Amino acid sequence: MTKIFVGCRAYARSSICSRYTGRGVERKQGAAEVGLTETKYAFYNILSAEVGRAHDLQELDEPVHREIIEVTERLVDMMEQATAIVDFFQKQDEIRAVKRDIKRTLVDTSFDNPKLRRKVIDQFMELARVKFK
Prior knowledge:
Elements: E1 3-5, H1 16-21, H2 25-34, H3 38-54, E2 59-61, H4 62-83, H5 92-107, H6 114-131
Antiparallel strand pairs: 1-2
Helix pairs in contact: 2-3, 3-4, 3-6, 4-5, 5-6
């Protein structure tokens, strides 16, 4: 069984956008290794770090890792579509709908828990403001 190291286990909330959207070869290589775009890779890093933290894991089993990649792709595709709405971040109803959809997606995962949900929703929305503005 393959294990995947959970990177970035601790990071300052204020530095989240620079940590996960930083430029460089490492970001491109990391994205290529897991088969994601650089944008999706930024969200993947958040989700994998939070899953590791929520379940006190140093490494992720391959099935959980695959699930994180699939969930990341689904959520980012949904967020890209939602944020294409003009002035999305000024429309509280639209923001609430996206947060609800993120929550529903996470509830259906094997790694769900309430604390993880709240952190992932908040951090995904914060990163979306940077990535999809």
